Amino acid sequence: ILNVEQSPQSLHVQEGDSTNFTCSFPSSNFYALHWYRWETAKSPEALFVMTLNGDEKKKGRISATLNTKEGYSYLYIKGSQPEDSATYLCALIANTGNQFYFGTGTSLTVIP
Amino acid sequence: DTEVTQTPKHLVMGMTNKKSLKCEQHMGHRAMYWYKQKAKKPPELMFVYSYEKLSINESVPSRFSPECPNSSLLNLHLHALQPEDSALYLCASSQPRGEYNSPLHFGNGTRLTVT
Question: Most buried of the four, A72, B20, B32, B36, by CB within 10 Å?
Answer without folding.
Answer: B32
